Amino acid sequence: MLLSIGDSIAQNGIMDNESNSRSWWKWAITPPQSYAVYLAALVLVFVFSFYAGTLKPKGSTGLGPPPAPVPMAPRN
Fold first, then answer.
1. pTM for the complete prediction?
2. CA-to-CA distance for 23 and 26, rounded, in angstroms?
3. Could you give the angle at the alpha carbon of 23 between the alpha carbons of 22 and 28, nearest 5°?
4. DSSP per residue over 17-76, as a string?
5. Which residues, 6 or more positions from 37, have their beta carbon under 8 angstroms from its beta carbon?
6. 27: Cβ–Cβ under 8 A, 6 or more apart, which residues?
7. What are the pLDDT digits (tens) for 9-66?
8. Residue 69: which pLDDT band, with cuts at 50, 70 and 90?
9. 41 and 50 Cβ atoms separated by less than 8 Å
């Protein structure tokens, strides 16, 4: 008797988690909220790309400037 009650409680918890994730997705794709979600995603992409653009590249150490090309003299 206790085993069957415990199993049904555990199954109900799993089902609730799945329905909660689906209800969040349903909420996020309805028109008023979807505009806000889209705008938030655009802002995050802009902020991330701006931050990545402001990072200084790591300089290569121990390598001097590239050698200058040697002009070739015309051969006769």
1. 0.47
2. 5
3. 100
4. HHHHHHHHHHHHHSHHHHHHHHHHHHHHHHHHHHHHHHSPPPPPSS--PPPPPPPPPPP-
5. 28
6. 33
7. 555 555 555 566 678 888 888 988 999 999 999 999 999 999 999 988 776 666 777 7
8. confident
9. no
